[in-house]
Design brief:
By secondary structure, the protein is α/β, with parallel strands linked by helices. About 30% of the residues lie in helices and about 25% in strands. The longest helix is centred in the middle third of the chain and has 20 residues. The structure holds pyridoxal-5'-phosphate. The site of pyridoxal-5'-phosphate (PLP) has 17 residues, from helix 10.
Length: about 425
């Protein structure tokens, strides 16, 4: 069973000070995930997790990551600024972007971030607007075709149609870009690939590692270029549904080690430093939305109207994503009522849960919507003039700190000219 990381007693206290709805993050959980990923790759000297800022772009969260030895992965000017303000420097910052504005590239260059080029044109564009190519550069590979994974227990499963995926470049383009970088005097080369999102298999990273490690060997044999780092990207998922299994990141690290020893070491690439840029796995389970039931409505279905909506959590509306719900104080009651849990937006897809079996609800019930610590608040928007909520941090000592205040109507009007 999924259990919230706070007790009902704790939450009742928190809501007296901070009105619902809000996002709540668990410092202890975030630190635990940082330590687990670092342990899983401790066999690789220089390993670094670059937390994907887009998942939870809050400085208080990013500083926790920094204290645990993580870097960041950024994709835009403002994410770069956020990284800078949090004290991340140089190769602690990855810049992995697409369709990139010139000023973003200039900022990434000024911060000495590792630039991850998405295609040959991005390199030309960078050279034109920055004036030169960087001394350290990474290339993003898209192997094309259909990416399937042979899961140990479930057989082959299609994970993604890579030809439809807008990210990364072909193998020929990788070779041409490395050649260009070499001629321009590049000193440190890297490779990156991202093949699937939210995977629930310990076999995903090792399978991806084999693809990108083999490419590194081919690059060495063909061009005489030895990459010094390889970025395994994001994509390790979390069990949103109560019956799904968690990834075992120690097993994942061991699977990647095996691929490393079988492919890179014999090719003379035993010094390659690995990095990851996980977002979801790092924080999703260490965040939840706390919301209250405000209205109950019975028509053709039973509706529970809560004070959160798709502006707080877009994933159900966007992807039909499942987020588990716990009704605080009713954990032991039978889930014998079926509700659509809805928000107040004038859009019928503003449903945080559809046909969900829950205990009987009453106005005032506190609901915890699980696993919203990544791609939750950050996807928020202002449709219908609805305002973004607060973000709170449950600290390791049990106290709560507001790490982002809720928006007010003044924030909504701040960008308008009358
Ligand atoms: C979104 C993203 C990530 C993080 O992905 P998760 O699925 O959250 O782990 C990592 N790298 C890049 C380039 C991304 O766009």
């Amino acid at each position: 069973m999924k259990k919230p990381f706070v007790t009902e007693e704790q939450l009742q206290k928190i809501v007296q000070e901070y009105p619902t709805p809000f996002h709540l993050y668990d410092e202890a959980g975030i630190r635990r995930h940082c330590r687990m990923i670092n342990e899983a790759f401790s066999w690789n000297p220089g390993f670094r997790e670059h937390f994907a800022v887009k998942a939870t772009p809050n400085p208080s969260i990013l500083r926790i990551m920094k204290e645990e030895g993580c870097g960041v992965d950024t994709a835009s000017l403002t994410e770069l600024m956020l990284a800078e303000k949090c004290g991340f420097k140089n190769e602690e910052i990855f810049f992995t972007s697409i369709d990139t504005p010139a000023e973003d590239f200039r900022k990434a260059y000024d911060l000495h971030a590792i630039i991850n080029f998405d295609d040959p044109d991005a390199m030309n564009f960078f050279e034109k607007h920055v004036g030169k190519l960087p001394k350290t550069a990474c290339l993003r590979y898209n192997p094309g075709g259909v990416f399937t994974l042979n899961k140990s227990h479930e057989g082959f499963q299609v994970m993604g149609q890579l030809e439809e995926n807008k990210f990364g470049m072909t193998k020929d383009q990788i070779f041409a870009c490395f050649q260009r970088l070499k001629e321009a005097g590049c000193e440190n080369y890297g490779l990156h690939t991202f093949l699937a999102s939210n995977t629930l298999s310990d076999d995903y990273y090792p399978a991806l590692a084999r693809i990108i490690f083999s490419l590194a060997v081919e690059v060495k044999e063909t061009l005489g270029i030895s990459v010094s780092f390889i970025n395994l990207s994001g994509g390790i998922g979390v069990p949103y549904k109560p019956d799904e299994r968690s990834n075992n990141v120690l097993a994942i690290g061991a699977g990647v080690k095996k691929a490393y020893e079988e492919i890179l070491v014999p090719a003379g690439l035993g010094n390659v430093r690995l990095c990851t840029e996980l977002g979801r796995w790092m924080t999703a389970e260490s965040g939840c939305i706390v919301t209250k039931v405000v209205h109950l409505k019975d028509t053709y279905r039973h509706y529970a109207g809560v004070d959160a909506n798709a502006c707080n959590l877009m994933r159900p509306a966007m992807y039909g994503a499942y987020h588990h719900i716990t009704v605080m104080g009713k954990e032991d009651q039978p889930c014998d009522h079926v509700y659509d849990v809805i928000g107040d937006l004038c859009e019928n897809n503003d449903k945080l849960a559809i046909q969900r079996s829950l205990p009987e609800l009453e106005p005032g019930d506190l609901l915890v919507i699980h696993d919203t610590g990544a791609h939750g608040f950050s996807m928020g928007y202002n449709y219908n003039g609805r305002l973004r909520s607060a973000e709170l941090l449950l600290k390791e000592d049990g106290t709560v700190k507001m790490i982002r205040r809720p928006e007010t109507p003044d924030d909504y009007f701040a960008t308008l000219n009358f």
